[in-house]
Amino acid sequence: MMNKNITIIGTSHIAIESIKEVKQFITDNKPDIIAIELDHKRFKGLIGKRQKMRFSDIKDIGIKGFVLNLIGSYIEKKLGKIVGVSPGSEMKIAIQLAKKYKLKVALIDQDISITLKKLTRSITLKEKLTFIKDIIKNIFKRDPLAAKIDLRKVPPQDIVEKMVEKVKKSYPSIHKVLIDERNSIMSNKIKKLAEMHPNARILVIIGAGHKNEVIKLLSGN
User: What is the arithmetic mean of pLDDT over 96-109?
Assistant: First the structure.
């Protein structure tokens, strides 16, 4: 059974609903530690202490990793503009409230440079071709799962699970690097936090696509 002092909120990084849920929980409960799906680089970028990714970063993550990051950031920002929410706003409000209430913030994600390096090394030609095919297909016909999603809200868990399974089937390497490995890393860091602070109330804020698997890992399943 997962530690009763750990609460996990699964969010959508551009959903107004997630901002409200995170704000409400922290304001009402004031947990001792807020564990967030960020690494130090993304944390600094979110609070405005680091500029967005620059060409000089290529030496750390490679040209492919640089391009992948630009594409991902572009898509997330475009979706965020549709709903009027900046990507990562739910984590930003959590950081602001932690400062206001003098709560500890823990960064539990893998360094983004390591993630992007692993991704560029592992992605296969078949997955690249599948990606191009999916883009072309979605130009003419919207994905039925995507059609069910309200960007202002966190998708229902069954939709999230179907989307994660779809990624696993079509892009196994991407699923392994972006989801499986990071689930393991984040759950291990949460466990260490709980061990170091056995009586602390810990709020974990992670993407909805990570939530169920992280709960299983924390429960030892």
Answer: 97
